[in-house]
Amino acid sequence: MHMQKGFVLWLTGLSGSGKTTLGDRVEEELKQRGYLAERLDGDLVRKHLWKDLGFTKEDRDEHIRRVGFLAALLSRNGVGVIASFISPYRAQREGVRKEVQNFIEVFCSCSLEVCKQRDKKGLYKKAERGEIPNFTGVSDPYEFPENPNIELHTDTASIEENKQKILDYLKGHGYIR
Ligand SMILES: Nc1ncnc2c1ncn2[C@@H]1O[C@H](COP(=O)(O)OP(=O)(O)OP(=O)(O)O)[C@@H](O)[C@H]1O
Ligand SMILES: [Mg+2]
């Protein structure tokens, strides 16, 4: 079964807010149902495509600009792209929205406290010790989406509930049946 139209599901939020976790679950579900789906994830892209880019404002902007280009290539060929990037700046996200077809901004809203408690990668501890400069939420800003297509509360609602909310949106907008 082919996806009728491509889309870019863009998960944004603080480190530890659950973007990768949710993105992987949605991908799994879409593939099980026979849809074309591809993941673009911050950690993987930075590791395999551009190790040279860091976390200054300039590098973050360039990182997201490149990812937006890839997302456009895929989505215009009918692929459901599931992108998970902190993407902390509004202008970055709006830039991608303009470049791609069917941009769906998903705000993974999670309090900084909960993200710090999870600290899955130990990054918050390092950032608080001053070992990671420009760390979003600690020493770099996160500009929350003012009008996201989907807002999830990843600190209070379960992974399953949030996955369902995304699938309901995709269904409601005719991307899946
Ligand atoms: N309701 C929830 N939604 C999402 N993740 C949850 C939830 N409850 C607990 N978690 C856990 O929180 C962690 C979220 O980590 P994850 O790597 O998905 O975050 P991330 O947003 O991708 O972070 P980063 O920007 O650093 O890549 C996981 O260990 C996940 O199991
Ligand atoms: Mg992640």
Brief characterization of the structure:
The protein has 177 residues and is α/β, with parallel strands linked by helices.
Structural write-up:
Helix content is 44%, strand content 15%. It has one domain (7-172): P-loop containing nucleotide triphosphate hydrolases (Rossmann fold, 3-Layer(aba) Sandwich). The chain starts with 6 loop residues before the first strand and ends in a 5-residue tail after the last helix. The model has no long low-confidence stretch (mean pLDDT 96). The protein has 7 helices and 5 strands. It is an alpha/beta fold and 177 residues long. It has helices at residues 19-32, 42-48, 57-75, 90-99, 112-118, 123-128, 159-172; strands at 7-12, 37-41, 80-84, 103-109, 150-153. The chain has a 5-stranded parallel beta sheet with strand order 2-3-1-4-5, sandwiched between helices. It binds adenosine-5'-triphosphate and magnesium ion (MG).
